[in-house]
Design a protein that fits this description.
Radius of gyration of chain A: 19 Å
Helix content of chain A: over 70%
Oligomer: homodimer
Chain lengths: ~170, ~170
Amino acid sequence: MEDRELPRREREKRAQRQEMLSAALDLFSEKGYHNVSMQEVAQKAEFAVGTLYKFFRSKEDLYKALLMEMAGTFDDALRIAIEEPGPEIGKLRNYVKVKGELFRSNASMIRLYFSETQGASFNMNAGLDSEVRERHGRFLKKLAAVFESGMKRKQFRRIADPYSLAVALASITN
Amino acid sequence: MEDRELPRREREKRAQRQEMLSAALDLFSEKGYHNVSMQEVAQKAEFAVGTLYKFFRSKEDLYKALLMEMAGTFDDALRIAIEEPGPEIGKLRNYVKVKGELFRSNASMIRLYFSETQGASFNMNAGLDSEVRERHGRFLKKLAAVFESGMKRKQFRRIADPYSLAVALASITN
DNA sequence: CCATAAGATGAAGCAATATTCACTTAGTGG
DNA sequence: CCACTAAGTGAATATTGCTTCATCTTATGG
């Protein structure tokens, strides 16, 4: 995430937005979406509700932004994990390790996230997907590339096509 | 579940109650507790809201009743699975198999259930436990008895005390 | 067939909380 | 120091949805 060289005010805004998202994250992951009021979020973030609404169109919007942000953070961490130079098997080990850490330290938020993205739960009028899905798609391609190159170097057996393996590994670790 | 020889009205009531629980199950597991209104449940069950309230004190009460019912069904199925006559190892296999099936065919409801009983999510003022916990406790004892008897017959090695093994198997399969 | 009771209904009351907006406060350039 | 704009505020309003209850419907039995 780049943010060098921005008008000061712009940077402040970002910081405020972060404050808000962070407060929301704490509360949502602690008590769940429906049991947190905008008042609470505002209070925890030390702003007035009105200000919160200057940044997010609605509660749902805030929630979506939060998921996006989470997805981004996760994706970045995992991407870096498999881009570490070294042999393919090391990259995969890295991936599993980092994913494990991420899940462990964000357990409650993950539950929230999955209840949203996976089946059931509430139908946040879709839309959240487009970007997240796309990003995840790109990530899977990168992961597939790791398998691919491992196969080329005769490190892995070609038990299935690389992309399927990537999907499988991702699912299993979830 | 016994219900033979009940005053007709009584049986109708049970049936109605079932209708309601069933409608609630569909909706809750589809959209999650907070995204289903009592109106919806009533409509789906083909009753008026008022009638719904004749059966359940509140929405929370309805939800609890549903969880209880689920817990009961599960417990029964699993109890039967380990009571099938035969060698202990077969009982354990049965247990795992049946549990797998139950989980597969009730995925969304299970998620709901776990988000309730496990950590985070909403604080349904406890209380739901007492009976469910007790029932589960009894079940674990039965499962422990299977290990116990398997050990007595020298089928299993005594790697740990039976009750711990029962708890372990239950956790793992979850 | 009527009187009475038991059951069912859904519109209205009410509480919680998401959202708005008229107003205050802080920042900026002249 | 002032005029003007951008930012921030939180009380007032709108919405949502749980719950109640006066009323209507159906069942019972005399």
